[in-house]
């Protein structure tokens, strides 16, 4: 086929060339015309809907201000202050009179408003006043560290808003927003209760529903975290975080519109942000509803595209073979190289640019193969050197021999404790001398740990209580040597040694979900937020581990060298409470 093409007369070649330069521009012109017309229609419709969204946001801002003004009125009410400052032990008649006063207050502030909201005044004296049919369970017993109460405490008397979850249900109407604030005594500024306003979803829907009842558009009101406050026409997503591929664009910009896919259909996403509340209102408009007016243009464009495509395929088939054949061969060779085969070569038959590319590719493969081989050898040498350096930072032979001598003298003198200490420390020295293998059974490493814990128990006597639990099924597993003892030593020295009073150390070893876990937990002095952040930075930058000696960083580095970055240490700590370190390792049943 290639020879026939190369044998064609110049006239035939020119005819093919001119046919291509005539039809192909027509094809692109048709596509361009359709895209421009569609874009113009989309922009006009999107701008119209954007105007509606802006107006809805203004209505929402007015609604938010009205709610806060309502809360201000109640917050400053002398009636509320007077009632909530009364003792809980007053008579039932007095309580009934107070109830009627608050009821009158509720009627006056709500007036002719048609909002679907519930008001709650919750006093520290036990008084509970509300406009709904019942008092929700979470309002019966005030929890200052929970939900709206915690936010109200942080607000120190200012109105605060709570969103991002469905708080409760009243029939089919959901409470989607909640406003809360502290009620303080005007005499001494002491907190005497809370004001809570539950806003039902129907109150929000009234702000936009009349404009969307006759459309197929999907509309959502989102809070600053992306949780759905209100939706139309479906209400099923209210209270959940919206999960959609367009969320990054919506949450990352103030307003705009763009194309997106949803449930295998094309939509135009249009959104706007309320500057006061930072809420976002987004609508998803089916693209088919917009482009109906451009069907004739689309039909003509498709017809031109089909004609141009047929012509282009017919022409490009012949001309592309001279280019695509060697390119395809080179591409197949590249895929083989990608899969790891570095012995393939490109057979260059011509002196054109593609053949030159193939020859250069052959040279690159040869260099790459040599480079990979050198890199692997260097990496293996480096890892072995680093592991040996970390495990053999001191030569314990002299110490071990000295401890053997001390143990013998202690036995002769009848000092059993000193003898046991010397034996334990000697066993630790002997373990570090003999363990030149890369992996050991867990029970061997635990034997070293038990010797170390005995020394610490003698040292601290009853100051430290050690709880040691090991899942029997894990003892036969293999781990790198000398991993657990440095973590335990870290917990004793930095967590329990300086603690005033007694301390507790928990060591737990277990397997779960195909992983081996070692948990070391102490109730020592813990770490501040800054110190914890510093430790975590060290653990995640193990290239600097050697600068601070034997410790968490070195253990983390050894685990990384052995098993990769998916394994290692997790540190959690709270000042004056304690520290928990969890080591995650793979389950190895053989070396």
TrEMBL record:
CDD domains: HAMP (cd06225). Its EC number is 2.7.13.3. InterPro entries: Bact_2-comp_sensor_kinase, dCache_1, HAMP_dom, HATPase_C_sf, HATPase_dom, His_kinase_dom, Sig_transdc_His_kin-like_C, Sig_transdc_His_kin_internal. Its main location: membrane. It is found in: Cell membrane. It is a multi-pass membrane protein. This is histidine kinase.
